[in-house]
Design brief:
Blueprint: H1 3-20, H2 35-44, H3 50-62, H4 69-81, H5 88-116, H6 123-141, H7 143-156, H8 159-172, H9 176-186, H10 191-203, H11 210-218, H12 226-238, H13 244-272, H14 274-303, H15 308-336, E1 359-362, E2 368-371, H16 373-388, H17 390-397, H18 435-489, H19 494-504, H20 509-522, H21 528-533, H22 539-542, H23 546-559, H24 563-637, H25 657-684, H26 688-725
Antiparallel strand pairs: 1-2
Helix pairs in contact: 2-10, 3-5, 4-7, 5-6, 8-9, 8-12, 8-13, 8-23, 8-24, 9-10, 10-11, 12-13, 13-24, 14-15, 14-24, 15-25, 16-18, 18-19, 18-20, 18-24, 18-25, 18-26, 19-20, 23-24, 24-25, 24-26, 25-26
């Protein structure tokens, strides 16, 4: 043992002896610089939080604002949960400084600069930036709460599994420290980090025992998950039971408590979801999309001499910035109240399946090229954008360019003069107003939805197949472990027991797993541990599941104490897996109605309503545009138009459907993205793999449905509008 380590260990036990004899301990500060501790700290503070932490710490140096005690305590609670290296003062200072920056910079750039260059100031944006800055103050102050809730939700999804791992280990080895270490090794972040911190706090002498360290950690969960705290206390109580029967009963009771508590909490959450989900649907989907019907009329009657492109920018700010931000904030608020559940693991982080998150192109039998899906997304998006924006590109290259059908009803671009200047130059014309251009704008929307949907799909579709295969094994694994436990209980060696179970369960996923293990033992001459955990051919490598991995590790640990101890451990684990699976199915049944409603909104209702509305909007825009053009032509020729001539002063030329459709199409894609994340979060908690898979499906399906319906309704309604306008005015 190195001298430094020996001295530290000697000093540690000297202090402990002094404490036991009643002497006042003098803690000698020790500096731990091992690679493991450095790696632990690096994992504990994720890089994604560093930018926010730097912003808060920088703001605190410039403008140090102190929050009241109640607010500071609330912020500190969430800061501690997600391990942020900031202070409540820094959070408050950053929210004020960021809001002031938005207000001042936005006002200067949209009011002062245009006035400086003798242009018209944009009062709309001045008001927009003012309200945005004021709203950002409370929102930015809630960032630690959102981060803390995200951390809490990820950890809550692992609560059942954590108790399961601790109980499983302690059934055969009554050692809390080793059980927590076993759980930390098999859990994903963030709960694995929390469990490691319990052990590190003991190693760094912050607490003298694991029980004290665990008790300090459990204080953070008393408010959010009392069942987890109670279960942990039952596990701790089992350490002091002299009777083996009572010790095992307490361990079983701890798992029952957390399972029943999970179900009851989710039941209450499901009942409370109806009202906020209705509000989200109305404010985020129905009202904004139905408002699009009257928007073209409002724009036309208020436009007058306003540039339609400028009007499009105003609408885009409202529909593509303000509304999505509001829907996202409301959805996050709903999601933050989700209690503990039973989440799915993101196996894409497993090094063995990393290659399946890329596009693998085989070039021969021994060589494969792995490409990042971003490449396909960028190329596809560029092609769609070039085609979709071709009316604007062609007009910029040649303003006189135009394509129309034989009757002149369907035009590709149809750039027209503003009503204020009936006789204008080609370069002064605005548009494109043609039906052909409107249909081409759908390609822009399709490009956005399909490109991003393809990215998420390519990243997840191969990995999700592996997870589904692994889940099929997990569903059968309870009975497989039961059979394996019975074989071990008969006194058979583990290697022979695997062969027996493989023969019994032939044709099932579990049978394949046991058969693969048997082949490694018989044909490759491996031992049981190597046959299961070999990094190249191990059976567990082909089925990357934490439950299966932990079950086999429990088998390896318990088999050292004899086949009967191993049999008892596997039989208990079989029962636990079955109970967890039962609760998981009950949770899915509870959330089924809410989830199916949200999926219907994403996949059908929102795209269908928006597509029909765009078709109606296109018809209204066509009628108003043609009517304004005809009246302008009559006025320019000096023709007597009677009362129709006065209509020129009532409304402007309106906004091109080309621009309007792109704004609405982008809003549909944004809604599909936000609602998919919300639906997946309500159903599965934090499940990045499932989220990416659902985004891939919903973005592509929803966007294609919207584009198809919008295109069909556009064509039908524009042909109908052309018939209406025939003979409306003199000389037509």
């Amino acid at each position: 043992m190195p001298t430094d380590d020996y001295q530290q260990l000697l000093e540690k036990y000297k202090q402990r002896i002094k404490e036991e004899f009643g002497e006042k301990a003098i803690l000698v500060p020790t500096q731990i610089t091992t690679k493991e501790y450095t790696h632990f700290k690096k994992e504990l503070y994720p890089a994604k939080y560093s930018l926010y932490e730097k912003a808060c710490n920088f703001s605190e140096k410039i403008l140090k604002l102190n929050a009241d005690q109640k607010t500071a305590d609330k912020l500190q609670k969430f800061i501690d949960v997600c391990h942020l290296t900031v202070t409540p003062s820094g959070v408050i200072s950053f929210s004020i400084l960021a809001a002031l920056f938005i207000i001042v910079f936005g006002s200067l750039s949209t009011f002062a600069l245009p006035v400086l260059f003798c242009l018209e100031p944009m009062f709309f944006f001045v008001v927009f930036f003012l309200f945005t800055g004021l709203l950002l103050i409370p929102i930015l102050q809630k960032v630690p709460e959102f981060m803390g809730n995200t951390w809490r939700m990820k950890a809550s999804n692992q609560m059942v599994q954590s108790i399961f791992y601790i109980v499983t280990y302690m059934r055969h080895t009554s050692n809390l420290e080793r059980a927590i270490e076993f759980a930390a090794d098999h859990l994903d972040q963030p709960l694995s980090l929390d469990f490691r911190k319990i052990l590190w706090d003991v190693e760094t002498q912050q607490y003298s025992t694991v029980q004290e360290s665990a008790e300090a950690y459990l204080l953070t969960w008393k408010e959010w998950n009392k069942e987890f705290v109670e279960s942990f206390h039952l596990i701790e109580a089992s350490l002091y039971e002299p009777s083996e029967e009572r010790r095992l009963a307490l361990l079983d009771k701890s798992l029952d408590v957390v399972l029943n508590g999970t179900y009851e909490n989710m039941l209450h959450y499901a009942h409370s979801l109806k009202e906020p989900m209705t509000m989200l649907h109305m404010l985020g989907v129905i009202l904004p999309i139905l408002g699009l019907v009257i928007l073209p009329l409002v724009v036309s009657f208020m436009a007058g001499g306003t540039n339609p492109f400028q009007t499009a920018i105003y609408i885009a700010v409202l529909y593509n910035l303000a509304l999505p931000a509001g829907v996202y904030y409301l959805g996050k608020s709903i999601l933050s109240k989700r209690p503990a559940g039973y989440g799915a693991a993101d196996i894409s982080e497993n090094p063995a399946v990393q290659k399946f998150t890329k596009v693998n192109i085989p070039l021969g039998k021994a060589f494969t090229i792995s490409l990042n899906p971003v490449i396909f997304t960028v190329v596809l998006l560029a092609v769609f954008f070039i085609i979709g924006f071709s009316p604007i590109i062609l007009h910029a290259l040649n303003p006189a360019f135009e394509i129309e059908d034989a009757d002149g009803k369907i035009k590709l671009m149809d750039y027209v003069c503003p009503p204020t200047t009936p006789l204008c130059e080609l370069t002064e014309k605005i548009g494109p107003y043609g039906l052909g251009a409107s249909l081409l704008s759908l390609i822009v929307t399709a490009g956005l939805g399909i490109s991003f949907g393809l990215y998420f799909s390519l990243r997840s579709k191969n990995v999700i197949k592996i997870r589904e295969r692994t889940r099929a094994l997990e569903d059968e694994f309870s009975s497989a472990l039961f059979q394996l436990g019975n074989r071990l209980g008969d006194g058979l060696p583990a290697e022979i027991a695997f062969a027996k179970v493989a023969a019994t369960m032939q044709g099932t996923t579990s049978g394949e797993f046991f058969n693969l293990t048997e082949k490694n033992i018989m044909k490759l001459g491996m031992g049981l541990q190597e046959a299961l955990f070999d990094p190249k051919v191990g059976a567990v490598r082909s089925y990357p599941s934490r439950v299966i991995e932990s079950s086999m590790k429990v088998l390896i640990e318990s088999i050292k104490k004899g086949p009967r101890i191993a049999a008892q451990a596997l039989l208990s684990m079989s029962r636990y897996i079955k109970e967890i699976h039962t609760v998981e199915e009950r949770l899915k049944d509870l959330m089924g109605e809410v989830i199916s409603s949200m999926k219907a909104q994403v996949q059908f209702l929102t795209p269908a309503i928006a597509g029909i509305v765009i078709g109606i909007t296109s018809m209204i825009s066509t009628i108003l545009t043609k009517l304004a053009a005809q009246l302008s032509g009559l006025a320019a020729k000096g023709t007597e138009a009677g009362g129709f001539a006065d209509m020129l002063d009532i409304f402007g030329i309106g906004m091109p459907t080309f621009h309007f459709q792109i704004i609405v199409g982008l809003y549909v894609v944004q809604l599909a993205y936000i609602l998919t994340i919300l639906a997946n979060g309500i159903e599965n908690g934090v499940d990045k793999l499932g989220e990416r898979y659902e985004l891939g499906k919903n973005l592509i399906r929803g966007t294609l449905l919207y584009c198809f319906l919008a295109g069909v309704v556009m064509i039908l309604f524009n042909l109908f509008a052309a018939q209406i306008l025939t003979g409306t005015l003199p000389g037509t």
